[in-house]
Amino acid sequence: MITGSLVALITPMSADGAVDTNKLDDLIEFHINEGTHGIVAVGTTGESSTLTHEEHANVIRQVVKTVNGRVPVIAGTGANATHEAIDLTRRAKEAGADACLLVTPYYNKPTQEGLFQHFTAVADAVDIPQILYNVPGRTMCDMQNETVVRLSSHKNIVGIKDATGDLERGEALIKALPDSCLVYSGDDPTAVSLMLLGGKGNISVTANVAPKSVAQAAEYAINGDAEQAKAVDAKIATLHENLFLESNPIPVKWACTQLGLCGDGIRLPLTPLAKEYQSLVREALVKSGVLSE
After folding, report:
1. pTM, full prediction
2. Is residue 281 part of a domain?
3. How many CA atoms lie within 13 A of 61 on its CB side?
4. Does any domain span residue 235?
5. Which region holds residue 42: left if phi is over 0, alpha if psi is between -120 and 50, else beta?
6. pLDDT of residue 293
């Protein structure tokens, strides 16, 4: 059972856009030392949509090797074509990932029945724990709670990352799902609240720059300590807001460069953080205590 703060890890890149394998190893050690409970490799924040399939598989292999069993590794393997999702999920299993994270197919706007058949096909094809991922703000595809409940009966489907930010809907989903299917937040501003309602973790962008605080907040919230969880979360609330001033992962990658965690590489069509937002992101880093003035 994977729980807690699961960092949606950036993929560090050099100025020419090549994956920086040395910095990737450094990031993993940083997160383990800071108390992050699990690593999510090549998800949205890891720029999975701009990596080739070979690069995608190589990053997963490297993360698994460097982590070496110290924390769970969840590999992003979603795609908008079912055969591609199956291929990526197979590669992740071969690489030794503990679980896979599969986003709803984007752009082609499948029906709820299409979503059910898509995720069932992947779960049937690859025997590895799989976490569904619903983020309609990015995909323009919204998987309804009823569809998630249908899918939860499959032995390989063990959870869902709910990035809707809708707490009422999230609470209803938690109540409707069996205990074997966990709900994780995919929305940093509401993550503590969702975990206090019964969510079991936070797949977090903010954890890239404030891993210790995000991990502490998750531990408190999962254990039902609302006062402590909210107190820790309040200190990083500005990060939750300002790390989304432009499309993720643009702001968080810029923030990581300010902390010396990676270089400034990012792949088109994403571009470096606009100058007008840099002072705001820096202000959030200072306010949260992860960067000195």
Report:
1. 0.97
2. no
3. 11
4. no
5. left
6. 79
Q: What sign for the dihedral angle of Cα 226, 232, 234, 237?
A: negative
Q: Distance between CA atoms of 130 and 162, rounded to whole angstroms?
A: 14
Regions of the chain where pLDDT drops below 50? none
Q: Mention every residue, 6+ apart, whose C-beta is less than 8 A from residue 37.
A: 2, 3, 4, 5, 6, 71, 72, 201, 215, 218
Longest dimension (CA), the chain: 52
CA distances from 290 to 26, 203, 239, 251, 253 (A): 17, 20, 10, 15, 15
Q: Structurally, how many domains does the chain consist of?
A: 1
In a domain, 172, yes or no: yes
Question: Of 93, 161, 212, 253, which residue is the catalytic one?
Answer: 161
Do 288 and 239 form a contact (C-beta atoms < 8 A)? yes
Residue positions forming the annotated binding site: 45, 203
The number of CA neighbours under 13 Å toward the Cβ of 110 is 20
Tell me whether residue 161 is one of the annotated catalytic residues.
Answer: yes
Binding-site residue numbers for pyruvate are: 45, 203
Q: Which of these is catalytic: 65, 93, 106, 133?
A: 133
User: Could you list the residue range(s) of the whole structural domain that residue 28 is in?
Assistant: 4-225
CB under 8 Å to 171, separation ≥6 — which residues? 194, 197, 198
Task: Please indicate, yes or no, if residue 273 is contained in any of the structural domains.
Answer: no
Q: What is the DSSP letter of 158?
A: E
CATH number reported for the structural domain that contains residue 179 in this entry: 3.20.20.70
Number of helices (H) and strands (E) in the chain: give both, helices first.
Answer: 13, 8
**Residue 175 annotated to the active site:** no
